[in-house]
Amino acid sequence: GVAYDHVELNFYINGKSLESPVSGIRGSVYPVLYVDDGAILDIVLTEFHHEPPPGFDRIMLEQSLL
Fold first, then answer.
1. Which of 1, 14, 55, 64 pairs with 46 at a CA distance of 20 to 30 A?
2. Which PANTHER family match (predicted)?
3. How far apart are CA 58 and CA 8, in angstroms?
């Protein structure tokens, strides 16, 4: 898993933090996934096998209301 709170980017394996946050990220952040030729990628961003860390939820699209 990946969690970003606009200060730190944190990575998780099977719901456990790797305790290696990345900070100093500026600008917009987008999820990016790469696969090799012939690979199939299934991704679900709404139902989790491992619950997100406290205070986090699924990816939501940012929209300007102005």
1. 64
2. C13ORF1 PROTEIN-RELATED (PTHR20951), SPRY DOMAIN-CONTAINING PROTEIN 7 (PTHR20951:SF2)
3. 17
